[in-house]
Design goal:
With about 375 residues, the protein is α/β, with parallel strands linked by helices. It has 14 helices and 13 strands. A 7-stranded parallel beta sheet has the order 3-2-1-4-5-6-7, sandwiched between helices. A 6-stranded parallel beta sheet has the order 10-9-8-11-12-13, with helices on both faces.
Length: about 375
């Protein structure tokens, strides 16, 4: 039977700036606040695990380098560490974010413990975030192991209905996949009521503030952000804040110079306090090629910031076109700029839409609503595995 009280959960994620690591870290923090013992197991401390919190533990995975290996076998080191931590701290289950290689490592750890002296059962849950399915899983060299690791998981969740359907269609797996949407802490992500001083730092003459948040990979189409802003800037005094870093930063910087708007485009780099910057913005630009959910849009909505995004993947599950933001086709920078100009020119409409954005974030995607879904899912998995 599943434990009646708090659970002991091991969480593994990529500790970088991407959405899967952010969601996994925020999930762990929320679960810890609800009394569960959370053990992060990864090669580096997750980027948002930047403060001391009760019930949170971090276990580093050390990967030794040998002349024999061109690339150290992280997945094997991770499996070993998962098994060690599970044995030492008597974990109830593992929750891995991103199928490859984390679910494979969890599967190996489960088998190691089952064959060990204690014959422990260690179920694991896999959460699919997107790229593990849409890119890595479709590489023919990875597809069989990705499918196998999903099939062997004791429980599988996906962050959107879009991702669930795509996984079932392209991998033809028999598992039931539970959709548990991403979430936002609406107490942390909220409008800055005393926003004058911080906003003046970036918009000293009362300009509109647009924002973009991503890891600057090609799929995020950061140069489209510049193109959209250039069109807006010609009609409205505005400035653009870009948070994040990655391979597309240099082309975006160069395009801003070519457009003659470099002084109005502010590259902030990677930011730990995303909420503080979102809280002073007016609109978010998210022209991605694909988003399995659109966490940046949700976090913006919680801050009453109107998202203008592409109609792809799971984004339409988050944004209702014309009511809580605007949607356009990929590459349609003219329409996205027109939506931005329309809403930014009407303060009353902007604030009303911003309030509807926050209401939707609170009602459908707040941590208070989503975290209990994970708790229920864990207990279902433990019941089935007992």
């Amino acid at each position: 039977m599943a434990p009646a009280g708090p659970l002991k959960i091991g969480i593994t994620c990529y500790p970088t700036y991407g959405g899967s690591g952010v969601v996994a870290t925020e999930l762990g923090l929320e679960l810890a606040q609800r009394g569960h013992q959370i053990h992060f197991i990864s090669y580096a401390q997750p980027i948002r695990l930047n403060r001391s919190v009760a019930n949170i533990h971090y276990h580093e995975v050390e990967v030794s380098r040998y002349p024999l290996f061109d690339y150290p076998p992280y997945d094997l080191a991770l499996a070993t560490r998962m098994a060690e931590v599970s044995e030492l701290y008597e974990l109830d289950l593992l929750h891995v974010h991103y199928a490859i290689p984390h679910s494979v490592s969890a599967l190996l750890a489960r088998q190691m413990l089952a064959w060990g002296a204690s014959h422990r059962k260690l179920p694991f849950v896999t959460t699919l975030h997107g790229t593990d399915i849409t890119l890595v899983g479709q590489d023919r060299s990875y597809l069989p192991v990705t499918r196998f690791s999903i099939e062997q998981s004791d429980g599988v969740t996906a962050i959107s209905h879009y991702l669930r359907e795509r996984t079932l269609r392209e991998f033809s797996i028999p598992n039931h996949i539970q959709v548990i949407h991403n979430f936002v802490n609406c107490e942390l992500y909220c409008r800055d009521r005393d926003r004058g001083q911080s906003r003046n730092e970036y918009a000293p003459h009362g300009e509109r503030l647009l924002v973009h948040v991503s890891n600057f990979r090609p799929v995020k189409r950061v140069t489209d952000v510049i193109e959209i802003f250039d069109r807006v800037r010609k009609q409205i005094p505005a400035r653009l804040l870009l948070m994040g870093d990655g391979p597309e930063r240099s082309p975006a910087e160069w395009l801003a110079v070519q457009k003659g708007i470099r002084n109005d485009v502010i590259f902030l780099g990677k930011q730990e306090q995303i909420a503080e910057k979102l809280a002073i913005a007016d609109a978010l630009l998210l022209p991605s090629q694909l988003e399995s959910f659109g966490l940046a849009a949700l976090e913006a909505m919680a801050c009453e910031v109107v998202p203008i995004a592409t109609r792809v993947g799971g984004i339409p599950e988050v944004i209702e076109h014309g009511d809580t933001g605007w949607l356009a086709e990929v590459g349609d920078v003219d329409s996205m700029a027109a939506y931005a100009i329309q809403i930014l020119n009407d303060e009353a409409a902007l604030r009303a839409m911003g309030k509807r954005c926050r209401a939707q974030a609170r009602e459908r995607f707040s941590a208070k609503r989503i975290i209990p879904q994970y708790e229920d899912f864990y207990r279902q998995v433990l019941e089935r595995s007992s």
